[in-house]
């Protein structure tokens, strides 16, 4: 049965890797410290502990890493995720960024989507910008061609917005130029003397907006009703039960992991070796599989004969995505326990318990919890597929004489 599952996994892997469609043309790079400075006419998939892109890419760039820096020229779209992400080059397409700290400079031809603990936009966006984080800043050098949507604990806008701005947060400061209307919902609203709003300022806040002398609001100021009273009660009930969801997630991951590791005790070691020896390759492989497998399933659905294989591929993809969190948790728990116990090898069960506990706590952190989940899924997913791939390439044991 084990060989049957392995063969099925390999069939699915080969299908989504070699289905003849253009999205599978790419140049991969992976490692602990990766620097890319060449000029290519293709898509670039790159992952590692520290990743730097200074070259020219005539295609899309997809990056995952601990520290990500893009200073080169990209003629397509850029998708980047990491602990610290800095994009200060020229991007002709759209930019999608997620990280603990996000810094965006240079120029972006189309839209910008960014989320993180701290997000700072100092770039020129050709169309719209959507920003979310603990602290969000549109700096003086920031230019949004059309609409701006920003939300966070603290939001500060001193740049230029070509049309309208929709802002929500705890503390909102507006000191830039907005060519349309500004709609704000916040605990506190401050309009600096440097603000130039061509349209109307509408706001809902705990108190009156603080509008400094010199601020220009051509369309007038309107204070609107805050959130409906019933919404606050709903939010309070949701917060009371949120911990139950986290507890259920912790129990579910832990139970599933203990059962899988008990039934297949040899699997954790091989998969964990992939992360230990090839962390960057695991992250990159997980990134590719996460994005490409659903697309391959859609391609297979075109023909009647491909429907069963598409269904099998999607199910296998979902299973390995969930299992990837267990792999990442076990690797994390192992590192923590080795550090605490002075290098002695901990049991798989304890590493799983510690790792799952740490991950679930990190998942609950506002603004960055989803990024931790994404990185955990990608790392574990990549390690699983690499382990399956290597197992098919290992020589079969010789028969006993």
Please tell me about this protein's structure.
It holds the Pfam family DUF8173. The chain crosses the membrane at residues 243-267, 279-304, 310-333, 345-364, 370-389. InterPro entries: DUF8173 (IPR058486). Helices cover 40% and strands 33% of the residues. Strands 1, 3, 5, 7, 9, 11, 13, 15, 17, 19, 21, 22 and 24 form a 13-stranded parallel sheet that branches. It has an 11-stranded parallel sheet with strand order 2-4-6-8-10-12-14-16-18-20-23, with no helix packed on it. The protein contains 7 helices and 24 strands. It has helices at 2-18, 229-263, 267-277, 279-300, 307-341, 348-363, 369-393, and strands at residues 26-36, 39-40, 43-53, 56-57, 61-70, 73-74, 78-87, 90-91, 95-104, 107-108, 112-121, 124-125, 129-138, 143-144, 148-157, 160-161, 165-174, 177-178, 182-191, 196-197, 201-204, 210-211, 216-217, 221-223. The protein has a domain at 232-392. The two termini are 26 Å apart. It has 401 residues and is α/β, with parallel strands linked by helices.
Précis, in short:
InterPro entries: DUF8173. The chain is of the alpha/beta class and 401 residues long.
Basic shape: globular
Rg over CA atoms, rounded to whole Å, is 24 Å
Q: pLDDT average, as an integer?
A: 79
Number of helices: 7
Which residue ranges are poorly predicted, with pLDDT under 50 across at least 5 consecutive positions?
1-26, 228-232, 396-401
Number of strands: 24
